[in-house]
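Bumping with the actual sequence this time:
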Amino acid sequence: MYATLSYDINAGSEPIEDVRDAVLKALGNTRERCDVLSDTLICEIDDAGDYEDLVDSLREVGTEFSGQFQFVITLHEAKSPLRSNGKFVRADAKAIIG
């Protein structure tokens, strides 16, 4: 499986860099594959539990940085086609999709 993560970081009381760092931390250092797809991230997902854990981590970022971080994450079945008008490295995306 893989997920696409679109997010928005807004200026606020906390520095934008701190919000970005929290998002990257939520994605975790153990995530084997996660790549930038234009302004969206595409991440390898192990199973439904991994997806739920990631959603929970991202919600914590949204709570910690209230009003500064919003996101939409969509789960896709492995090998489901990826359609994007953004520029991305197709070989990397193909490796994540499966």
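The tokens above came from a reply further down the thread. The first strand starts at residue 2 and ends at 9.
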